[in-house]
Amino acid sequence: LSGLDPAQPYFQDTPIEVRLDQSDAEFVDVIHTDTAPTIPYLGFGMSTAIGHLDFYPNGGREMPGCGKNPISQIVDLDGIWEGTRDFVACNHLRSYKYYSDSIIYPDGFLGFACASYDTFKTESCFPCPNGGCPNMGHYADKFKGKVGNGITKLYLNTAENKNFPLWRYKISVTISGSSTVTGYANIALYGNNGNTKQHQIFEGSLKPGSTYTNLVDAELNVGAITKVKFLWNNSWINPTFPKIGAAKVTVQFGETG
């Protein structure tokens, strides 16, 4: 049984007889997308973990793409009716959009077990443990035999619009060069399934010999990595024309470690 942002008003913190609960089926998975308090934020969804697996994409409160201005949201790609509904309850309605997207991405929407969304943003919950990570949505039941009666909160990030799934990588770059420069370093991943756009690994002082690490939610599972592209920029003209490179790039895939 899959709960798509189960209702908060009149249902949160009520007896299990009147709301969704893990006792309602052999396996209950839940997607939470609108868990802000009803007042003053008008959150329609329940924040409490109530299933065998509870997924909190983007932290469960504010979904990417829901902060668009009213005009651009109402004149939506899916049509004016869809756009108008999204303007009124965008975060709440993201739950069914994630679910429908999950049907065509069996390896997407990987949820990482974490104590909180803030912890998920660090490396503490990365990569997936030996038993793997469950997939939010249609394929969550692949994890059915691995859950007990306890509560498991899972976190992940999604894109702003279709296609919603993102794949998490940890990328480390060791800088080479003759002098320290200020700027930013980007990495693009290439693999047998395609390539990603450039993702920023670090911004600030880039020191030769130092290693910079960041978690990246890529728009593609690139498969077996064949190449990485390294780019740095300081956003202004430096008359000394400094040159830096990547002496080493290490990529770790969240699903397999």
TrEMBL record:
The keyword Hydrolase applies. Keywords: Cell projection, Cytoplasmic vesicle, Disulfide bond, Hydrolase, Lipid degradation, Lipid metabolism, Secreted. Gene3D superfamilies: alpha/beta hydrolase, PLAT/LH2 domain. It comes from the Eukaryota. InterPro entries: AB_hydrolase_fold, Lipase, PLAT/LH2_dom, PLAT/LH2_dom_sf, TAG_lipase. It is found in: Cell projection, Neuron projection; Secreted; Zymogen granule membrane. Residues 167-257 form the PLAT domain. Belongs to the AB hydrolase superfamily. Lipase family. This is Pancreatic lipase-related protein 2. It comes from Nothoprocta pentlandii. The lineage of its organism: Eukaryota, Metazoa, Chordata, Craniata, Vertebrata.
